[in-house]
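Appendix B: a complete holo record

For completeness, this appendix reproduces one full record from the ligand-bound portion of the collection. The bound molecule is zinc ion. The inputs are the chain sequence and the ligand SMILES; the output is the full three-dimensional arrangement of the complex, encoded as structure tokens. No fields have been trimmed.
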Amino acid sequence: MNNPLVHDYVRDTIDLKKANMPESIYILDATLTEGEQTSGVVFSSDEKLEMARKLAEAGVDAAYVGFPAVSKEEKSTTKRIIGEGLGFESWGLCRVLKEDIDELIDVDCDMASFIAPASRLHYQKRLKTNLDDYLIRLEELTTYTLEHGIGVSLGLEDASRAEMDDVKKIAKIGEDKEKVNLLITDTVGTFTPASARYFIDELRKFWSKPIALHFHDDFGMATANTLTAVESGQGEYYFYVTVNGIGERCGAASLEETCTALKVLYGYDIKFDLTKLMELSKLVEKYSSIPVIPPKAIVGLNAFTHETGPHVHGILIDPLTYERIPIDTLARKRRFVFGKHTGASLIKKVLEDRGIQVDKESLEIILQKVKEKHEKKDAAWKIENNKIIENYHQSVEKRFTLENEVVEIAKKVLKL
Ligand SMILES: [Zn+2]
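The structure of the chain with zinc ion bound, as generated:
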């Protein structure tokens, strides 16, 4: 940001520390897979196709298009999206099983994203295997996939709790092979920005090819952790994101926050078109039926809404005083609302814009009346709105299929 009146410490972290910016950052969207893994969410085939088209239009570099081994319906949708030739690199999910990979070969996707547990907790306890056997299996399946012309993303599940030595051994599988990248998953969202950065730096000591970062938001740090890669050096990265940050449990790094921070805070050039973010957010809100909260970064209703007197006063002089993101970059509209915190300057401006002159005394009376109106109105509004919130939470519960319903289904099938 070139403005002599504000100091830019983000630029300092790049310039003064002489941090190397990555050669390439690719936006890898996972809304169609991770997003659908949000508890209760199911997207129809048409909905997925529409979201995929919108993602392509906005300029994502790569996107997960499906997990074809899950069901016939999922496979046909995956095939349908790939068949559209939307221009992004298509990634598909598979477990480290030959039959899962065969499904990906069938739908002809560009990249097979292995779900390959990397922490001892996962591969020893959950998969009940030892590292030597596991490495043999991974190597065989990697070679098999590549032989079929599909790239491999060695998706290290729970990598953030894996021994670096084990990660190094798994990475060795892809070392001398073309079209292989490493995908680091912070499955339970345990990284902090400093530890994510440390992990990436350690990884870069033995892995120079692309790294994909798939970070979860259990502590609310997914986006921040992902962005640490910007400062951690050369090489190529895929940033795994979802629209509105939806995903398993507390979700993943959000597309809108990641892309906007990259362009606006870091000045990093990505081809993604930020003006498409609101449309994408609304579309995913509609198809996931998960509302975006008003104070949500970038796409929330309140992101460019101002009420407090000094803020409005500042904005009227220079929007940079209370808005860090140039509003045009997101194609959003600024809004002033009136209430308890309104200051006289906005009321004066609104009246003057309409040719109404007002003296100081009358202005003060008008201001008091505006504040009173808001306080009175708000009490009634709160009662009504709290009912809506309560109904919404009850309605969310209805979305899940619960234990009792499964037992009922089973009883019918078993004729009990
Ligand atoms: Zn995930």
